[in-house]
Amino acid sequence: MARPTTKAAAVRKKAAAPNPYFQLRRSRIQGKGAFATQPIPAGTRIIEYTGEIIDDEEADRRSTTPR
Questions:
Q1: Strands, E, within the chain: which ranges?
Q2: Long-range CB contacts (within 8 A, 24+) of 5-10
Q3: CA angle, corner 21, sides to 16 and 26, nearest 5?
Q4: 3-50 confidence digits (pLDDT tens)
Q5: Is the whole-model pTM more than 0.70?
Q6: Which of 21, 55, 27, 52 is nearest to 39 (CA)?
Q7: Angstrom distance (rounded) from CA 29 to CA 16
């Protein structure tokens, strides 16, 4: 039986498509990082943000860390 497809799984699958300008790999600084594989021309879109856009007030409201 096939597992149900969730939105998160679909996003992960979409995100796995290769990008000609960078690759994700382990980083000594932060665990995982994006590294350029060739020069990236100015103005080139290398990612597409697909998340919800919220303002600072909403981000503060949702934050689990008190400010």
A1: 22-27, 31-36
A2: none
A3: 60
A4: 555 666 555 555 556 788 989 899 998 889 989 999 999 999 887 788
A5: no
A6: 21
A7: 22
